[in-house]
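Posting for a labmate who doesn't have an account.
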Amino acid sequence: MQKSDGVRRHPRAGVLLALTCVSTIVSGGADPSVPENLDVPLGLDRYVPAPSDNPITSGKVALGRQLFFETRLSRDGRTSCATCHQPARRFTDGRRLARGVFGREGRRNTPSILNRAYGVTAFWDGRAPTLEDQVRAAVTGERDLGLSMEEAVARVSRDPGYARAFEAVFGEPVSAARLAQALATFVRTRMSGDSPFDRFLTGDGRALGAAERRGLELFTGRARCARCHAGPLLSDEEFHNTGVAWRDGRLADLGRAVVTGRDRDRGAFKTPSLREVARTAPYMHDGSVARLADVIDFYDRGGRPNSNLDLEIRPLNLTAGEEAALVAFLRALSGRSGSS
């Protein structure tokens, strides 16, 4: 079924939400292509997708972790991937807008990298088809690390420790491709699961309290959240216009249209995962909403009207008690990190 704006619909997403999660967490033993020591939390598929030319290995994870915190990968020598993606903040930064090299403020909020191994695209507008592409864009972006891949390779190559590590892990010297693969592997293994919601789905009836269960009922029913926030990631990985990008009657950010050039994608952004949502404020692609209660109130009002508003966005007329129950459920999506 297709929407008039070309985005696929999920009319039964509320029903499929639990079924999809259960099917992944009760799957068989670890896939042989995944290292035995990879800690995949409850609620996520034991098979962790990775490109055929960049399989997950413990050596790559360790090297990628070191590069993730490496400030020499930035033009100013003070910024790293971890500047915006802070582990203590579930790989976000707590800012409204990201702040990269030389303190340059970005145009969008820092999204968490947790569970992105299972994602379809990277960035709010989906411009990167793989995590390897996302890493390259982050290193070279003027508002990110601001360094060419050639300079990044040169800086890393000058360090004897890194030179030995790349030879040990890849069997060859430092290169742009291998640097991106190591960083992407680390990102690919950052996960979150085993939340009260996951435990509830596997039969632990005490994992969710009464308010949280009421919130789940609303989430998959009348509040319509699961129309977009479906599956193990609690995201359909698609792009929707909810009106956030419209300010004072004008479009402040083209969103997905920057990538596709299509008018119907103007102001559309990728559905964010709701895992760890209670710990990753502020919200929306522009960080304009500070609290979960405000997010729910925004959707209760029917978003912000505009000519491209998603057909699923409409006033909900929730009561104060129902909004509180939804917040309680969203807090139950906080879990533990795997592969730490």
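Reply:
Got it, the structure tokens are right above this. DSSP finds twelve helices and six strands in the chain.
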